[in-house]
């Protein structure tokens, strides 16, 4: 992976974490056990510290950065969706930040809360635990149902499983020129979109 020190400060990655080779880690970045960092994610610890706690994930093309003397923290089982931007904020335990959402300076996403896709969480906003925030700027819409919290937890477990799958089998290869006979299936756990889960 592209990993850079700055002023002698070197990123730290637990051996049980998976960081995709195209992700970039700079400076004061601490990646805890069982974490996943996806392709083209950028974690720039060149001003403030970035901390990922156990089992959290930062998916492809996310950007994580912050101001000097302001940590950006993703607590245990935090789940950061594709393309999200975090800046000098805290994502509490078991919370989810949806795809392409932005969470700004000194904002806090409470435990087991969900920030909807493409939401803009303004600087200093506190998203209460177990609540749904959505919109531009984000507003608190309602409390989450037990089904929604369970769905989020299942999705995070899927990424923790992906961490193990990647460590065990991910490698760079040349593409095939045609589909081979007996093409294998992926061994991903069964998980479905929330809208499908609500139909069942």
TrEMBL record:
Name of the featured protein: Phenylacetic acid degradation protein PaaY
Q: What is the lineage of its organism?
A: Bacteria, Pseudomonadati, Pseudomonadota, Betaproteobacteria, Burkholderiales
Q: Which PANTHER family match?
A: DYNACTIN SUBUNIT P25, GAMMA CARBONIC ANHYDRASE-LIKE 1, MITOCHONDRIAL-RELATED
Q: Which CDD domains match?
A: LbH_paaY_like
């Amino acid at each position: 992976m592209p990993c850079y020190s700055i002023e002698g400060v070197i990123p730290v990655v637990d051996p049980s974490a998976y960081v995709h080779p195209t992700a970039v880690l700079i400076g004061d970045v601490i990646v805890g056990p069982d974490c996943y960092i996806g392709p083209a994610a950028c974690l720039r610890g060149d001003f403030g510290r970035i901390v990922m706690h156990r089992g959290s994930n930062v998916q492809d093309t996310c950007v994580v950065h912050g101001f000097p003397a302001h940590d950006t923290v993703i607590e245990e089982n935090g789940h950061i969706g594709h393309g999200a931007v975090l800046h000098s904020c805290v994502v509490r335990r078991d919370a989810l930040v949806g795809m392409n959402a932005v969470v700004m300076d000194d904002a806090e996403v409470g435990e087991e809360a969900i920030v909807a896709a493409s939401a803009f969480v303004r600087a200093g906003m506190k998203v209460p635990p177990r609540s749904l925030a959505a919109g531009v700027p984000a507003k608190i819409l309602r409390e989450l149902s037990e089904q929604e919290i369970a769905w989020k937890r299942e999705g995070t477990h899927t990424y923790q499983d992906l961490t193990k799958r990647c460590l065990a089998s991910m490698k760079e290869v040349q593409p095939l020129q045609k589909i081979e006979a007996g093409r294998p299936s992926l061994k991903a756990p069964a998980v479905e979109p929330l809208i499908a889960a609500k139909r069942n």
